[in-house]
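pasting for ref. prot 1 ->
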Amino acid sequence: MEKQVIVFATNNKNKLSEVRAILGERFEIKSLGEIGCNEELPETHNTLEENALEKALYVRQHYGYDCFADDTGLEVDALCGQPGVFSARYANMEDAEYDDPQMDKGQDHDSEANMRKLLYKMKGEENRRAQFRTVIALVYGGGEYMFHGVVKGEIATEKHGAEGFGYDPVFYPYLENPAIEEPKTLLPTTFAEMDGKEKNAISHRGRAVEQLVKWFADK
């Protein structure tokens, strides 16, 4: 039987491979480029929820496909929740206390520059607790739905690992225990030191996608 097509509003190959590994048996997951959407999707809001829904609605309204879109933020306790919704553009945010001579000022979504800024801001900080949070907005069959995934952890003092993407080399996740409210045991590997299967099993995006899969399974 032919699979139903649904668009994941991204061209990020890492994100696509993560989601296709989880949803690929049920749906044909198409990227923005595969439906001919080459423009930058709007992200004009100050919350992950609003940005994710804005992107999914844009695809539905302009291209006619059911669609889901995600927005993810790294929220660091010692930085009052920053970089949060601005995680992908953290290095480009104006900051009178920080300047990065290595950064190409015209380049957005520069993961290396983002990590350099984060490590600079966290230098000497004892409280390194943080969390990754993903919101997935689904526009499907005339309805709008939200799914959330969170993973708690700590910020490393330097980069470790070459897998993954984004802030993965500087994030150690906790081994979470449902029996206790706050996780205590830090895993010895960053997300960037895990293979894709290991990361998907505990990651924020993996948890949000699990909720999405469950929603489809219950329909």
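and prot 2 ->
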Amino acid sequence: MVAPPPSDTTGRLPGDDREPTTLMPAWQPPPSAAPPVAETMAMPARTQPPAPGVAAGPQAELAIESGPDAGHTHRAGDQALRLGRSPDNDVIVRDPATSGHHARLERRGDEFWVVDLGSTNGTFVNGESIQEKQLNDGDRLTIGQNSVHFAVLGA
């Protein structure tokens, strides 16, 4: 067995010129200068946000009338709807002629617009190829092989 090296009465080894470690007290938060808070406080009344699914402005409906997804309807309101084949879209279209991210329906103020997202086969409104177009109640969109009727609800 090896004996430990000799040390002086401070517990330091010969030739160790470092200062001994001092203990620091644990951190304490500074004393609070604020007056004590009452156990019960009156809170201001909270206004109720709109219920989920209730839009603050006009709403619209997309009704797929013909094509692989005929019979499906989708509501549009405050949130933009992205349409396409990819599963991360808001409206998933099961149609090989539809791009993964084909088009987006969005509300700008009280108007609805459709924006083509660079789709391969294009987006059409009333038979006209568009990049971006304001929609009117009764317009027909063509997305891939699907014919979609656009309606403003309450119009």
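The chain has no helices and eleven strands.
The first strand starts at residue 60 and ends at 66.
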